[in-house]
Amino acid sequence: MNIHEYQAKALLRSYGVPVSDGRIVLRAEEAKSAAGEMDGPLWVVKAQIHAGGRGKGTFKEASAGEKGGVRLTKSVAEAAEQASLMLGRTLVTHQTGPAGKVVNRIYIEDGSDIETELYLALLVDRATSRVSFVVSTEGGMDIEEVAASTPEKILSFTVDPATGIQGFHGRRVAFALGLEGKQVKQCVDLINKLYKLFIERDAEMIEINPLIVTDTGDLKCLDAKMGFDSNALYRQPDILALRDETEEDPKELAASKFDLNYIALDGEIGCMVNGAGLAMATMDIIKLYGAEPANFLDVGGGATKEKVTEAFKIITSDPQVKGILVNIFGGIMRCDVIAEGVIAAVKEMGLEVPLVVRLEGTNVELGKQIINESGLNVIAADNLSDAAQKIVKAVKG
């Protein structure tokens, strides 16, 4: 689960991490009073969406102005005006895709005098099962671009969970970033606090870009992104309360409410599979035969008829889906349950695209019988390869 910048900065502030003073604005008429609560002389107006590249983004609506989603202003009135221009408009960045995201929140914060921009992130390193630090002197840039063009400017190391964070970790970061004097001590303190936040709050990512050195020689987190382990939210109720459902894909949101593992993709063939490994193999074989999957969807081993029905509804609600492949290998999951769920969903939603069903395993004959006697226009398949070829042929002609 991701949160907004202003929420991330509130968390940082609660752990004693240096950030700028700021105010959140939800309605245009609140912008002037919010900006007036800060001293200036510079006010930064930031669109709040779950995507990077806001400063270089563009708005679809001409009335939002030509500037990006991060704007520097020099008066309370100008800050309020820019906030009003952005609220309710659609911001398009390299991470949102061409559809963009509607800006429902604006964050106005004090401007900062910047001497140096740096990069700092904490991530979960899946290879070592440890928390990893990634730091670079190239702050303010996309870290992917830095990694591709100048990888030598990136330092990465992991923290042994047996010892936890130590002073030398902070000093290692400080030296890699070229910090000196009081900045080294500040860096050690910052690293300790960020690691504590990461562990205590079940974070998956904390990205500070840029981490700046101010004109007074102090460190400050100028921007912040955070993501959290969705499986741990049951023990983080205050983090869960920060969830902004308007920023999430409606299909993924609906799937989460039925405990379905769903991720939207860009292809044209919807997939409903049981088991993550089989789902990945299904997506791969669809690509092998010349098409693209529209989603990853694992209904799980203990799915009910109601879950299967909801999964089918989610797939058919995607306008880019031109065909559907149901691929079930019944172990714990029974093929007849899948068949009943598919039929119930089709009767409720209708079926306007080709549907290929491959069933194998527990109660497979009963599942096939249920589908065959349903009167649905379903294409039967004998194995995974056969199923993939048939759905690709039905979609591609």
From TrEMBL:
Pathway: One-carbon metabolism; formaldehyde assimilation via serine pathway; Carbohydrate metabolism; tricarboxylic acid cycle; succinate from succinyl-CoA (ligase route): step 1/1
Cofactor requirements of the protein: Mg(2+)
Binding site for ATP: 46, 53-55, 109, 112, 117
Positions that bind Mg(2+): 209, 223
SUPFAM superfamilies: Glutathione synthetase ATP-binding domain-like, Succinyl-CoA synthetase domains
E.C. number(s) listed in UniProt: 6.2.1.5
One Gene Ontology cellular component: succinate-CoA ligase complex
Biological process according to GO: succinyl-CoA metabolic process; tricarboxylic acid cycle
Alphabetized UniProt keyword annotations: ATP-binding, Ligase, Magnesium, Metal-binding, Nucleotide-binding, Tricarboxylic acid cycle
Catalytic activities: GTP + succinate + CoA = succinyl-CoA + GDP + phosphate; succinate + ATP + CoA = succinyl-CoA + ADP + phosphate; (S)-malate + ATP + CoA = (S)-malyl-CoA + ADP + phosphate
Domain ATP-grasp: 9-239
Similarity remark: Belongs to the succinate/malate CoA ligase beta subunit family.
Subunit structure, interactors included: Heterotetramer of two alpha and two beta subunits.
HAMAP family: Succ_CoA_beta (MF_00558)
Name of protein: Succinate--CoA ligase [ADP-forming] subunit beta
Organism this protein belongs to: Pararhodobacter oceanensis
